[in-house]
Design a protein that fits this description.
- The protein has eight helices and five strands; from the N terminus they run H-H-H-E-E-H-H-H-H-E-E-H-E.
- It is an alpha+beta fold and 197 residues long.
- A hairpin with a 2-residue loop joins strand 3 (161-162) and strand 4 (165-169).
- Helix 5 (90-106) packs antiparallel against helix 8.
Length: 197
């Protein structure tokens, strides 16, 4: 027996996820009316949609800045998108402001893993290897990889837990924005100033 999908259910799901009405209806139908399952379906579809858009050129965008209360920390971030229409979009601007807050609070060093110099990764791997001496050989590699993941989540902006939703990473939030806005979005670079540092 299939559940009847009402317009109210579709509207509520759209409000929660920002996905299109037709996508919400299809997800609810597929999930047999289960809202949580429909959200998972939409998130999976969003990730697939974002992956398709990842190769598209991003020549427009916004440079956003933030100065923390007291003037001791300042951040500038460049976020690129495909069109100037999206660059002027309130949701895109809010995302850029959130990134500034993230950078001010979490103090990342790099945008993404690919930006971390291989020498830094090798040094962290060496430290992690030294820390796990005496552990069972079968677990060594997993422990070392776990320590490297923790390192990436400290120094890479996209791997950090998002300050407003710690259960998600910045990359998860970026992927959701790409799926919702419908354009490729890339964090190009940032700089963080701290008084006396």
């Amino acid at each position: 027996m299939s559940t009847i999908i009402t317009t109210q259910m579709v509207g509520d799901l759209r409000e929660k996820t920002g996905a299109g009405l037709l996508d919400c209806k299809k997800a609810l139908t597929e999930a047999n009316g289960n809202v949580e399952a429909a959200i998972v379906i939409l998130r999976k579809k969003g990730v697939a949609s974002a992956a398709k858009k990842a190769e598209r050129a991003t020549r427009e965008g916004l440079i956003e800045s933030y100065i923390h209360v007291g003037g001791k920390v300042g951040v500038m971030v460049e976020v690129n998108c495909e069109t100037d229409f999206v660059a002027r979009n309130d949701e895109f601007k809010a995302f850029c402001r959130d990134l500034c807050l993230q950078i001010a609070a979490a103090n990342p060093t790099f945008v993404r893993r690919e930006d971390v110099p291989e020498a830094d990764v090798a040094k962290e791997r060496e430290i992690a290897t030294a820390q796990v001496q005496g552990k069972p050989p079968a677990a060594l590699q997993r422990i070392i990889e776990g320590k490297l993941e923790k390192y990436y989540s400290t120094v890479c902006l996209l791997d950090q837990p998002f300050v407003k939703q710690p259960e998600k990473t910045v990359k998860d939030i970026l992927t959701e924005k790409v799926a919702k806005i419908g354009e490729n979005i890339q964090v190009r670079r940032f700089i963080r100033y701290q008084l006396g540092a």
